[in-house]
Design a protein that fits this description.
InterPro entries: Oligo_trans_STT3, STT3_N
Protein name: dolichyl-diphosphooligosaccharide--protein glycotransferase
Largest sheet: 2 strands, antiparallel
Oligomer: single chain
Order of helices and strands: HHHHEEHHHHHHHH
Shape: globular
Keywords: Glycosyltransferase, Magnesium, Manganese, Membrane, Metal-binding, Transferase, Transmembrane, Transmembrane helix
Structural class: mainly alpha
Helix content: over 70%
Number of helices: 12
Subcellular location: Endomembrane system
EC number: 2.4.99.18
Number of domains: 1
C-alpha cells in the first residue's frame, strides 16, 4: 500500500510539472516567432514604471510624475497604478541580480506573465482538489494552462496586471477553501487570521480583494 501511495504521489507530481511547463511554454509563441518584446501600450507603460522602480526605488516611483504619459496632462504614478505587477517584477529582477544573473529588466517583464500562468495552473489544481477530487484538480490545471482567453492575457510580452492578478486571485480562493475545509483542525484555524495577508497581493495587482 505504501508503495502504491508513493507511486501515485510521484505520478501526480510529474503530471503537475508537465502541466506547469506546458502553461509556460505555450505562451512563448510570440518570442519564438518574433523576438522578446513588450506588446501594446499599457504593458509598455508598466515596463517603463518597472524600469524606473529598479533604478530609483519604491519611494521615488510612488512620487514620480510621468510627463510622457497621458500627454500633455501627465500622470501621477503612485496614485494611478496597481503596484502588484510592477513590484513583483522588480523583486524578481533584484533577486536574480542578487544571484549574479545579469538579466535585463525587459526580459523579466516579458516572461513574468507566462511564469505566473504556470503558478496559476498549480493553484487551480489545489482549489479544485479541495472542492472535488485530485482527478478534477488535474483537469482544471490542464484547462487553465491552455484556455485561449487566459493565454491572450498572459502571453509573453503582455506585461499587464492580469499576468499576476489572476494567479493571486485563484491562490486566495484556494487558501480560503483550504482553511474553511480544514477548520476542524486547530492548526489550520490558527492560520485563518493570516488570510488577509494573502489578499493583499490580489488587491495590489488588480484592485479586487478576494472572497
Amino acid at each position: 500500500m505504501a508503495r502504491f501511495n508513493a507511486s501515485g504521489w510521484a505520478s501526480r507530481t510529474l503530471l503537475l510539472i508537465m502541466i506547469a511547463v506546458m502553461a509556460f511554454s505555450i505562451r512563448l509563441f510570440s518570442v519564438v516567432k518574433y523576438e522578446s518584446v513588450i506588446h501594446e501600450f499599457d504593458p509598455y507603460f508598466n515596463y517603463r514604471v518597472t524600469q524606473f522602480l529598479t533604478k530609483e526605488g519604491v519611494y521615488s516611483m510612488w512620487d514620480w510624475f510621468d510627463d510622457r504619459t497621458w500627454y500633455p496632462l501627465g500622470r501621477v504614478i503612485g496614485g494611478t497604478v496597481y503596484p502588484g505587477l510592477i513590484v513583483t517584477a522588480g523583486a524578481m529582477y533584484r533577486f536574480l541580480h542578487a544571484l549574479n544573473i545579469p538579466i535585463h529588466v525587459q526580459e523579466v517583464c516579458v516572461f513574468t506573465a507566462p511564469l505566473f500562468s504556470a503558478f496559476c495552473a498549480l493553484a487551480a489544481y489545489g482549489l479544485v482538489k479541495e472542492c472535488r477530487s485530485e482527478g478534477a484538480g488535474l483537469v482544471a490545471a490542464t484547462l487553465v494552462a491552455m484556455v485561449p482567453s487566459y493565454i491572450s492575457r498572459s502571453v509573453a510580452g503582455s506585461y499587464d496586471n492580469e499576468g499576476v492578478a489572476i494567479f493571486a486571485l485563484v491562490n486566495v480562493f484556494y487558501t480560503f477553501v483550504k482553511l474553511v475545509a480544514g477548520c476542524k483542525d486547530d492548526q489550520l484555524c490558527k492560520h485563518a487570521p493570516h488570510l488577509p495577508l494573502l489578499q493583499t497581493p490580489s488587491a495590489a495587482a488588480a484592485g479586487h480583494g478576494g472572497p
